[in-house]
């Protein structure tokens, strides 16, 4: 049989919700930031092209991470300790505040960091059908 306790923690929501973004750090970047000599971090933008938009890039030393926003299936609530206030039914002179919790922000998306690979100087091979055809003809002759 379960035990029920008669201890309540009052919970309330602040009407003026604050804006927060949570940043998920890869373990290696977290270790660097927690080290005795943490590196400087900068946020830049990748160049936009005709086919792709520019992305926010987090730079730390020689590592670059693309920043992507992703939605969470369940919102994350940021809580702050608070105390209760007297209501109209309470006597303000004898009211004793009770510790409570107040939500100050509801976060529905986070920012993830994706390691960017080093840029290559040569353009990627397209492998068009005529290149494949020419290659197979050379292999047959040889």
Automatic annotation (TrEMBL):
Higher taxonomy: Eukaryota, Fungi, Dikarya, Ascomycota, Pezizomycotina
Listed name of the protein: Sister chromatid cohesion protein DCC1
GO cellular component: Ctf18 RFC-like complex
Gene Ontology terms: biological process: mitotic sister chromatid cohesion
